[in-house]
Every structure is written in C-alpha cells, then in structure tokens.
Design brief:
Blueprint lengths: L1 E5 L7 H10 L5 E4 H5 L10 E3 L2 H10 L21 E5 H11 L1 E9 L9 E5 H5 L12 E5 L4 E10 L2 E2 L3 E5 L7 H10 L6 E9 L4 E8 L10 H17 L5
Parallel strand pairs: 1-2, 1-3
Antiparallel strand pairs: 4-7, 5-6, 5-7, 8-9, 8-10, 8-11, 11-12
Helix pairs in contact: 1-7
Length: 247
C-alpha cells in the first residue's frame, strides 16, 4: 500500500500530489498525520509512506527501521571547501557569554528533526534569540562550519549512482555548478544509499562545493518531474525497509 499524507484541509501538498500522479489513481491511500501517529494505520512490510519528517520517521520506526543520517559523508570531505566540526549548543553559548562575542560561525542541529534553522551566530543576542536558537537546549548536538558565501545552489537527485536532474533552489539561477565536479562527488560517494539528494553550490570563490547530503525518503521535489521524484523516494524507501541501510 502507498500512503500519502494529506494536509489538515484534506488536500495533498505539492509533493504528495506529484506522487499521486506517479502512482496513479487507485494505487495510493491519502491519510492524516494523526492517524499514523496514533497507530490507527497499521503498516506492513512493503508499505510506502510519504509526508513530513514528523510522519515518515515514526513510520520507519513502526516498520522496525533503525534510522540515522550523515549530512557530510567522509567520502565527500574534500568537496566541502570549508571547515566543519561537531559541538554542543551549550559550548557555543559558553564561548560567546565568556567573551561577549566570537568570530561568526554557522551552526545547525545535527539531527534532521530540526530544533532550529541553520544560522550564523556571533553575539549573545544571537544565541538567546527565540527566533534563532533560543528555544533549543544547551545539550543539543550541533554542526558548526565557517561561514561562506553561496552564489547559487542546486539540489541534485541521484538514484543508483545516476544523476537525474539539477534543481536550482537559491541564489543566481544564471550561475551553474560545475557538473563535472558534481559527477566526481557522486563517483566518490562510495558508501552512498540507493537514492539521495546531493545539495551543491557555487561559492563566491567560483568553486563548486558540497552544501550537504539529504536523504531521499522525505525531501522537497523542487523542479523535479513526478517520475524523477517518485523514483527517488520509492527507491530509497525500498532500501530502508528491505535492503541494507548505508546512511
């Protein structure tokens, strides 16, 4: 059974509508998030679920999948073109509090269930701003990196090692990434899952760099066709629920 999450008004969002087209009428079942979260939907091996992370992660758990994700695989470290390290939110708060400010650093939660959106912090007001990181606990694991300037960014869906599209999502659409460099990233990603999205961009230096790797089972479709989007999600879901989990 193919389950597609509905919005509270009973309609399908853009992504789920594309999947409805992919599966075709009669081959999917719309559902409300609360019904799955309340276990009113009893998933079985072979069932496919599409929706928000707040739905798909519990669905994987119900199916017995022990899931984890890596934003920056070791295979792709050389394509970052910036320093990246792990820390705790409390460590950054302490450094800023003790010194009033620090050199700007980009931080984001290490988990995909995001407690806050990635942002640049350097002052006391930044770390306690409720709209930035103020509501997150100091024990939260975070990923830190040197701030860089992205000129243009693209999401690249990959299925079984094949690049299916280049979807521009931020910056100057007239600036294209070096496709040869992206192909090298895909080639070097030895421990890649069956399907994923590699976010890449052009830096102010002109270099093509890795933004991050996103798992394919719950990503936005951007400008992907329903066929590309459907193949991306179903391939990864099949691996997670039946095959070997690499990520």
């Amino acid at each position: 059974m193919n389950y597609l999450q509905m919005k509270n008004n009973g309609t399908l969002d853009k992504e789920e509508q594309a999947l409805a087209e992919y599966f075709r009428e009669g081959n999917y079942t719309p559902f409300y998030a609360k019904h799955l979260l309340q276990r009113k939907i009893k998933l079985q091996k072979g069932d496919f679920v599409a929706g928000s992370l707040q739905v798909t992660l519990p669905a994987l758990k119900q199916l017995g999948v022990d899931y984890s994700h890596v934003d920056y695989p070791e295979d792709l470290t050389k394509y970052l073109h910036r320093n990246i390290w792990k820390s705790k939110l409390g460590d950054i708060r302490r450094q800023i509090s003790e010194n009033d400010s620090i050199a700007p650093v980009f931080i984001k939660p290490a988990t995909k269930l995001k407690k806050f959106t990635g942002c640049i912090v350097s002052t006391v007001s930044d770390i306690y701003d409720g709209y930035l990181v103020g509501r997150a606990g100091s024990g939260l694991d975070i990923i830190c990196s040197d701030p860089v300037q992205w000129v243009s960014e693209y999401r690249v869906p990959v299925v079984h090692g094949q690049i299916l599209d280049y979807c521009h999502y931020d910056g100057d659409p007239g600036v294209m990434v070096d496709k040869g460099e992206v192909e090298r990233m895909v080639h070097d990603y030895v421990m890649a899952p069956w399907a994923y999205c590699i976010d890449v961009g052009v830096l102010s230096t002109g270099e093509t760099a890795l933004v991050e790797v996103n798992d394919a089972f719950s990503v936005g479709m951007y400008s992907m066709s329903p066929v590309v989007y459907g193949d991306l999600l179903t391939t990864r879901w099949q691996q997670l629920t039946f095959g070997e989990v690499y990520i």
